[in-house]
Amino acid sequence: RWRDEEEARREIVQFLRDDREISRTWQRLISEGQRRGASFDELAGRIDDAVGDRYAESFEQLAQLPGGSALPSAATVERLRDYAQARRDASRELADGLRAHDAAQIRAALEKARRARQAPEAADKR
Q1: Which residues, including other chains, have CB under 8 Å from residue 17's CB and lie 6 or more apart?
Q2: pLDDT tens, 45-67?
Q3: Greatest CA separation found in the chain?
């Protein structure tokens, strides 16, 4: 059991590092896309690759952790899994909105990403 907990904690630390990098990449892609005038399709593809796919990988890594609910870090792993899934979904919805040139879908996806970003912070304050 202790080894499972150690593995979970290592994965949590790695996820948090990855999340910071993915979030910076997401912001950079949007800023560069606006500055450079990238096509919506180009920006959508870059978001899929650099954001959506990476959150999907993170979700899978967290989902494969051993131990279940008996581990002390189980609730944290669950929260991070939910967060990774929400951010993955938001990035994919953003990419779809860009491809469709649908401003309402783009706004909704960005709002979903913002809300997902706030959820772990709110849970940590409880």
Answers
A1: none
A2: 999 999 999 999 999 999 888 76
A3: 52
| Spatial separation of the C-alpha atoms in residues 100 and 44, rounded to whole Å | 10
71: tokens are 């581990």
- 37 dihedral zone (left: phi>0; alpha: psi -120 to 50; beta): left
Residues 6+ apart with CB under 8 A from 123: 79
State how far the Cα of 1 lies from the Cα of 119, in Å rounded to an integer. 28
Please name the helix (run of DSSP H) or strand (run of DSSP E) that holds residue 93, with its range, or none. Answer: helix 74-100
pLDDT of residue 66: 75
Residue matched to tokens 């706004």: 107
> What tokens appear for 27 in the block?
């912001």
Handedness of CA 97, 79, 121, 57 (dihedral sign): negative
CA distance 91 to 59: 14
